[in-house]
Amino acid sequence: MRNNRTIVYVIGFLFSIPIALTSYINSSFLENYISEYYIGIIYAFASIITIWGLFKMPKILTRLGNRLAALVFSLVIFASLIILSIGKNGALAISAFILYFVASNFILASLDIFVEDFSKNSAIGKFRGIYLMILNSAWVIAQIISGSIIAKSSFQGIYLFSAIFMFLVSFIFIFYLREFKDPQYIKVPILKTLKVFIKNKNISKIYLINFLLKFFFVWMVIYTPIYLHEYLKFGWEQIGIIFTIMLIPFVLVDFPLGKLSDKIGEKKVLIYGFLISAFSVLIIPFIKKPEVILWAAVLFTTRIGAASIEIMSESYFFKEIKEENIGTLSFFRNTYPLAYIIAPLTAIPILLFVPSFKYIFFVLGAVMLLGLLITLRLKDIK
């Protein structure tokens, strides 16, 4: 069990490197083929496919098993990244991006099952905290090196470098975790899963909280790089420094807050998380100077709040379900692709009618305040 835990942590780290390297450049890369105002449509289409696929996940896992399914998806990501590294044909590049996006969400859900397996009957908050800390440390490392790679070889270099890590992930799935025993995955119809979320007020509230957090991430991932690079004229190496500092809170707070949640519950930390995120985001439109330290500090503060929300929502949810409840887990994991549908579709009319790009951050601040209101009505568990 301990060996499996280490392997899953290693996979999570290696998998997070390419995700982190590409997440903040994908929107700028897609700008080569489509207007910035309509990039959201690509994300929305990929997300619709992802949500449909996640509902089919119990059937896929029952047929293939979690390890083999994860191997297949990791190979799909590897091939997609190779195609993106070529990046000459627009239709092919966009298709590869969609495959990459869909398969990445499947891997995340697959890793959840592995983590849930070795953390059952244990301090869930603690193990979730360690897992997220490892994943997020990969994000910090990735931002340190991303700027210099882009400066030397453009976006294609990032995708090619990312493919190396996915090759390693595939290699590990081939030779390790063979002794993992799949649970009897419970196939629950979509309508029945929806009823579970509707009837269980705690699960439905934490689902909404997790969705709003993912909305925050999506909004930031798509529009912050565009704002910093196109409007404030930061170079990619400067943006890499800013994002490296910005992501440090995810490494610092996940583990200690995860342990804390096992003792005091999640509600109090969630409240502070939304307060910090909301008010720090609302400050962004008022910052006019393109200074690296200033922007790093503000975005660092937004992520203190976001990191707190992330570990608390994860801990709360996984205290409520079991690993075999794959329908419930898949539905919970659709918050990310769902956010990739709703966030861009919300942003498109705003970008078309507001006088300045910066006003989109006022909208995001309001969204985080909505999360605070939902959290205040959440019943705490320990």
Keywords:
382 residues; mainly alpha; Growth Hormone, Chain: A; 82% helix
Major β-sheet profile: none
Structural class: mainly alpha
In whole angstroms, the N-to-C terminal distance is 25 Å
Q: What portion of the residues fall into strands of 2 or more residues? A: under 5%
Number of discrete helical segments:
15
- Which architecture name does CATH use? Up-down Bundle
Rg estimate, integer Å: 20 Å
Percentage of residues in helical conformation: over 70%
Inertia-based shape: globular
Give unreliable regions as ranges. none
- From N to C, what is the helix and strand string? HHHHHHHHHHHHHHH
- Tell how many strands the DSSP assignment holds: 0
Overall pLDDT level: 83
Give a verbal description of the structure.
- This protein has one domain (about 1-375): MFS general substrate transporter like domains (Growth Hormone, Chain: A, Up-down Bundle).
- The protein contains 15 helices and no strands.
- The chain is about 80% helix and about 0% strand.
- Helix 11 packs antiparallel against helix 15 (about 360-375).
- The model has no long low-confidence stretch (mean pLDDT about 85).
- It is mostly helical.
- It is globular.
Brief description of this entry?
This protein has 382 residues and is an all-alpha fold. The protein has helices spanning 2-23, 26-30, 39-55, 57-64, 66-86, 90-119, 124-175, 190-199, 201-231, 236-264, 267-283, 292-318, 326-333, 335-353, 360-376. The chain contains 15 helices and no strands.
Could you outline the blueprint of secondary structure elements for this entry?
Elements: H1 2-23, H2 26-30, H3 39-55, H4 57-64, H5 66-86, H6 90-119, H7 124-175, H8 190-199, H9 201-231, H10 236-264, H11 267-283, H12 292-318, H13 326-333, H14 335-353, H15 360-376
Helix pairs in contact: 1-6, 1-7, 3-6, 3-14, 4-5, 5-6, 5-7, 6-13, 7-10, 7-12, 8-9, 9-12, 9-14, 9-15, 10-12, 11-12, 11-15
